[in-house]
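User: hey, got a sec? need Histidine kinase domain-containing protein folded
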Amino acid sequence: MDANTFRLYLALGTALLLMMAIFIVVFVAYYQQKQVKQQLALKELQEKYRRELMAATFQGQEQERRRLARDLHDEIGTMLSVTKMSLNQLDRKLTDNVPASLLLQRTRSLLDETMSNVRRISRDLVPTTLDRFGLVAALEELIEKTTDGDIHIQLECNATLDNLTSPMEVMLYRIAQELVNNGIKHARATQITIQLFCQENEVRLSVVDNGHGFDFDDVMKDRDRGLGLRNIESRLSVVDGHVTFDVAPGRGSKIYVQVPLPQSEPEPELV
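Assistant: Yep! Here you go:
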C-alpha cells in the first residue's frame, strides 16, 4: 500500500471517528435535554398537584366553617332561644318568690350573654356580610367589631374591586383577619391601617400597625406562633401570590400581599 492510499485511509478513519464523536456528543446532549424536560414536567405536575391539594384543603376548611356556623345558629342558637322562653314563663310564675326570681334573672342574663357569644362565633366562622355584600363591607364589619377606645383601625381602598372572585375575597379576608388579630394580640398595636387596591393585573393588600413588632425568623421557627403566617404563605402559593414581611422587634410591622388577578378570556371579534 503506497503512501497516498495510506493517507486516504487515515483521513477516512479520522473523519469516521470524528463523526462518531459528534454523534455521541449530540446524543448525550439530546438525552440530557430530554431528561431535563422530563424533570421539569415532573416538577410542574408535582407543583400542580400540591396547589390542587392546598386549594382543596382550604376549600374543605371553609366548608367546615360553614357547617359549624350553621349548626351553631340553627341548633344551639335555637335551643338557647327555647330555653330563654321557658325561663321567661317560669319567671312569671314566681312573682312572689323574690330569691328565685333574682336567680332566674341572673340565669337569664348569663343565657343572653351565651347567645350573644354563639352569634359572634358564628359570624367569625363565616361572615355573612362577605357573601352578601363583598369584601369591603366584610372588612368594615371586622373593623367595627375590633375597634374600641384603645384600638383604632382604618380601611383605605379604591372602588375598582369588581375583578375579585369569591374564593379570592375569602382568601384576602382571612389574611386581613389574621394580620389584624396578630397586630392586636401579639404586637399590642393601637393603630392599624388596612389598604386594599386593585391595579391592572393584581390586587394589593397591606396591613400596617404601630405595635412592638417581632422577629420573623424566631416566629417561623415556633410551630405554634408561626402557624398563622405559614397559613398565609400557603394560601397565597395556591394563586401565585406573594407576601412581604417588613417586620423587626421594637417597631411597627408592615405586611404587603400581592395577588395576580385572573385574566379574562378575550372576546371573539365580530366579523
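Quick note: The chain has two domains: 1-126, 127-262. Let me know if you need anything else on Histidine kinase domain-containing protein.
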